[in-house]
Amino acid sequence: MSSDDERHKPHPVDLIEKSSFEERESVVELRDSASDSSHRTRTGDVNTKLENPLAKLVHTQLLADAAEFARTHELDEYTETIQKGALLAQDPAAFESLPMLTEEDRRMLRREYTHKWDQPKTLYYLVIVCAIAAAVQGMDEAVINGANLFFPAQFGIESPPGKGATKEQWLIGLVNSSPSLCCGILGCWLTDPLNRRLGRRGTIFLAASVGFIVCIWQALTNSWQHLLIARFFLGLSLGPNSATIPVYSAECAPPLIRGALVMMFQTWTAFGIMFGYVMNFAFRGIPDQGGIRGLNWRLMLGSAGFPALILLVQVYFCPESPRWYMMKGRYTMAFKSLRRLRHTDLQAARDLYYIHVLLKAEKEASDRTSNKFLELFTVPRNRRATIASSILMFMQQFCGVNAIAYYSSNIFVQGGFSETAALLASFGFGAINFIFAGPAVWTIDTFGRRNLLLVSFPLMAVMLLMTGFAFWIPESSPAHVGIIALGIYLFSAAYSPGEGPVPFTYAAEAFPMYVRDIGMSLATAVTWFLSFVITLTVPALLGAWTPQGVFAWFAAWNIFGFVATLLFVPETKALSPEELDQVFSVPTHTHAAYQLKVTGHFFQKHVLRQRVGKMPPLYEHEGAIGQKRYGQAGAGAA
C-alpha cells in the first residue's frame, strides 16, 4: 500500500462509530487548535482536512514506532501484537488485507462488526456498576420528593395554604436545592483534580462513600438547618459522580457501543428516580417507633444510601480506565486493563496504541494553551459550542422537569390527591421517565439531536399547559385529578427521549478534545446550579402563582427552548471531527439566518403545499454551496 493511499484513509473511528466520545478527535485538530495563534486556525479552518494521525506513516515506519513504543513501556513480550495493533489503528477496516494478521485475528475482528454486543463479562460488569452509580444519583434526587410531605411540619417550616409565597416555602426550597448549589459551585469543579489524583474508580469510590455517609446523616437530622447542611454535603457526591461515570464508561467501552453505553447513564438515572419514588411509597405509612419522630421520611432519605454502599463495595472489582493509567505513565497496567475489557490481545493493543497517540497530541496542546477556560469564550469555534451546550443545559432545568421531579408529591396533593395517592402518582411519573428514556439510546443517532429537541420542546409546552389548565377543573370532577396526572405523565414521555439525554451527549461531543474536560465541567456546573435555582424557587412560585401559573411559566420557557435550539444549536449527529469543526465554524448569525429560511421553506412546502426548490446546504460536508456560503462570510463573526 502506498503512502499516498494511506494518507487518505478515513479516521478509524469514522469507520467504527462517528459519535464516539474520545477517539473521534484527531491529533491534527489538537495541534492546530493549540499551537497556531492565527484567527482562522483558532476558529477551526474549514478547509483544513483532519486526518488519522497515523495515516501519513508508511508501514515500515509505523512498525518501527510500535516496536519502540513496546520497548520503552516495558511491553517487549507483546511487541508483535502491538505492531499489528498499530497497523489496525491506522486503518481498522483493512484487517482483511494485512499480511501480519492470522485468520483467527481476522475472525475476531469481523465479529466486532457482526456481533457488537458480544463483549467480555468484565465489560458488562463495569456497565452494571456504572448503572448502579447512575441509579444512586437518581435516588438521591427522588427521595426528597416524598420526604417533602412530612419533614416541614416536624421542623416547623410547613407553609399555611392560601398564603401566597411564604418564608417557609423558601426554606423548603433551600433545603431541597442545597445539593445542587454545592454541585454548581464546588462539586463539579472538584471532578478534574479528583480524577487526576484518584483515577475514575477512586473518584467513584469517594463519591459513593460520601453519598452513603450523607444519606445516613440526613436521616439523623433534628432541625431544618441541620438537614440543610447535610444535604449541601450531598453535592460533593453528586457532582463528581455525574461527571465521572459517563467519562469512565466511555473510556472503557469499545467504539461500536460507546455511544449507547454513555447514553445509558441517563437511562439508569431515570431508573434511580423511579426507584426513589418506590421507596417513598413503601415508607410512607411507617409509624414513629422508639421515640423517633418522622421515621417514615428518615427512612426515605436513608434508603438512597443502600445502592451507594453497593457501589463503593463493587467499584474496585472493575478495571481502571486505560486512558487514566496511560496519563500516569503506567502502560503495563493500561494494557492489563484493556485485556480484561477486550476479547483478544490484538484488540487491546490496537486501542492502547491509538490512545497513546491521542494522549501525546493532547499533552502538546495543553502545553501550548495558556488558559483553556478562557478559550471556551475567546475562540469563536469553542464559543459557539459553549453557547449551544449552555442553552441545552439551561433548558434541561427550565423545561420544568425538576419542578416535577422534586415537588410532584406536593403538586399532586395541591391538586386534591391524598398523600398516598400523590406518592403513587409520583411513582407513575418516575416509571414513565425510565421507560421512555430507553428509546433515546437508539433514536438519538437515528433522528438526530436537533430533531429530538425540536419535537420535544413543543410537546412539553402543550403538556404543561394541559396540566396547569386541569387545576381549574372542579375538584368534584374525576377529570380533575385524572388530567393533572395525565398531563404530567405525557410531559415525562416527551422529555425523556429529548431534552433528557441530549444535553450531556451534546456537550460531550461539541468541544474539541483539548478543552473537552473543562467544557464538560462548565456544562455540568451550569445544569446543577440552575437545578438549584429551580428547586429553590418552585415552592414559593406555587404559593404565589398557583400551579396554573407555574405550569404556564415553564411552558413559555419550552417555547423559548424551541426557538433557541432552532437558531443556535447545530446538529452534531454522526459527524467526524472535521465536520464538527466545520459546523461550529459557521458564524452564529449565518446559522440562525439559514435556519429561519429552512423554517419558511418547510412551511411553504408542507403546510401551504407549494412547489418549492431544494434549500442549498449550509455545510461543506453537505455540498460545495455550503462551503461558499459560510467560507465567504468569514469564520470570525460571532
Our count of helices gives 30
What is the CA–CA distance across the termini? 44 Å
Strand content: under 5%
Helix-strand makeup class: mainly alpha
CATH class division of the largest domain:
Mainly Alpha
Q: Can you summarize the main beta sheet?
A: none
Order of helices and strands: HHHHHHHHHHHHHHHHHHHHHHHHHHHHHH
Catalytic activity: myo-inositol(out) + H(+)(out) = myo-inositol(in) + H(+)(in)
Transmembrane segments: 122-139, 170-190, 202-220, 226-248, 260-279, 299-318, 391-409, 421-444, 451-473, 479-497, 518-544, 550-569
Biased composition (Basic and acidic residues): 1-43
GO cellular component, one term: membrane
Summarize the structure in words.
The chain is mostly helical and 638 residues long. The chain folds into three domains: 1-118 and 329-368, no CATH class; 121-318 and 369-568, Up-down Bundle (Growth Hormone, Chain: A); 586-631, no CATH class. It contains 30 helices and no strands. Helix 19 (372-378) packs across helix 20.
Please write out the topology.
Blueprint: H1 3-7, H2 12-16, H3 27-35, H4 39-43, H5 59-72, H6 79-90, H7 103-114, H8 121-147, H9 151-154, H10 167-187, H11 191-219, H12 224-252, H13 255-283, H14 295-303, H15 305-314, H16 322-327, H17 331-341, H18 345-368, H19 372-378, H20 380-398, H21 401-414, H22 419-437, H23 440-443, H24 449-470, H25 478-495, H26 502-510, H27 516-568, H28 577-583, H29 588-607, H30 624-631
